[in-house]
Amino acid sequence: MLKGKHIILGITGGIAAYKSASLLRLFIKAGAEVQVVMTPAAKEFITPVTLSALSGKPVVSEFFTANTGEWHSHVDLGLWADAMVIAPATASTIAKMAHGVADNMLVTTYLSAKAPVFVAPAMDLDMFAHPTTSRNLELLRSYGNRIIEPAAGELASHLIGKGRMEEPENIFKVLEAFFAGRDDLKGKKMLVTAGPTYEKIDPVRFIGNYSTGKMGYAIAEEAASRGAEVVLVSGPVDITPVNKSIRLVKVESAREMLAACEAEFPTCDYGVMCAAVADYAPAEYAESKIKRAGNEPPMIHLVKNPDIARTLGMKKRDGQKLAGFALETDHELDNAMAKLRSKNLDMIVLNSLRDKGAGFGTDTNKITIFTADGRETAFALKSKREVAADIIDTIITL
Ligand code: PMT
């Protein structure tokens, strides 16, 4: 399961750091490519030489190599990884991660990581039981990070209690289980729409909305990383897909988006309509810039845009599954259910602008999924990548 996967192994300064060498060996033996990132304190507990010998790569610890000035890009590392594992994670690093204190290479890499993050705490029992640590771990959970609970047993202090880092074999099993489900879209094709549509008024103006494409692109990345052939039909946004296998079809207006979707959907197994499509477009396009003249403002007559989700919903054949989104500001449940039915969708993902951290432009989202067969699942606020995983985990059960 781990063959060819890119794993960042973050090591912090605790006695359990010696166990990281065993964990690293397990990853390498399973065929993963591992980049070790250590905090300066970790080097007091285990040497970079041991870890670079085991991983076959120089260990990264500082922002740049002092004698050459070579810069280590935490951004590139964050994009490279399929998973980041921090084992052991001390109370101090957990606190820094929870609050974004980016004063070392490990925490900056964590903040740049797009992949799922696994945290294996290791500390003395009183530190682990302290309300600060509990709250910080709760914060990490709310960001979608997975906490690998420490075990109870004899600690470095010789006290007995909870705080021992989980054994490397068990951490390895957690990662193995995580990647096990990751090729579950192999042989499947998925159409994803993302971003806003722009409906031109004149050469300088358009009707649009605040969608940045982050949610739709996260779905495309997640599906591609799970083996799907992905076609991403995107309105104008500033991001580009990281996974090179994603086929990007750029469009501007709702009509262009519809044409691209109608061309692709017949050969797809799944469609996820995440784009914020403008419901109306100007009836006429003014070839020249509309001038400010006279006292009366110009009238712009609008016409209804095609409903892309509904068009595909009405045409879908047996076996095809179609998911839509509902972006609401009020009467969330009723509106979402009405869209699920009227567009003939198999499921709808409700996000409300009333929820902090949800909707346009944020790196997080908070969703409830309703399926046509009557299931309703509410999820916590999570990173958009984690939300994408929840959406895909649900659509494949339909
Ligand atoms: O891009 P981000 O900044 O990350 O923000 C993400 C998001 C808020 C845009 C996303 O999570 C989201 O909610 N997307 C759907 C926004 C929307 O247009 O919702 P709606 O309730 O108006 O539309 C319902 C469904 O019909 C959607 O699946 C939409 O894609 C589809 N639709 C709507 C109108 C139309 N003319 N054609 C459509 O296909």
The poorly predicted ranges are none
Oligomer: single chain
* Order of strands across the main sheet: 12-11-8-13-16-17-19-20
Beta-strand portion reads 15-25%
- The total of beta strands comes to 21
| Spatial extent as radius of gyration | 24 Å
Q: Helical proportion? A: 25-40%
Overall outline = elongated
Heteromolecules bound = ligand PMT
Find the structural class using helix and strand composition.
alpha/beta
Architecture overview:
With 398 residues, this protein is of the alpha/beta class. It contains 13 helices and 21 strands. It has helices at residues 17-29, 48-55, 74-80, 91-99, 105-112, 125-129, 131-142, 168-180, 214-225, 254-264, 308-315, 332-342, 384-395; strands at 6-11, 33-38, 83-89, 117-121, 146-147, 151-154, 160-164, 189-194, 199-202, 205-207, 229-234, 247-250, 270-273, 280-282, 302-304, 321-328, 347-352, 364-365, 367-371, 376-378, 382-383. The protein has an 8-stranded mixed beta sheet with strand order 12-11-8-13-16-17-19-20, with helices on both faces. Helix 3 (74-80) crosses helix 5 (105-112), helix 4 crosses helix 7 (131-142) and helix 9 (214-225) packs across helix 13 (384-395). It is elongated.
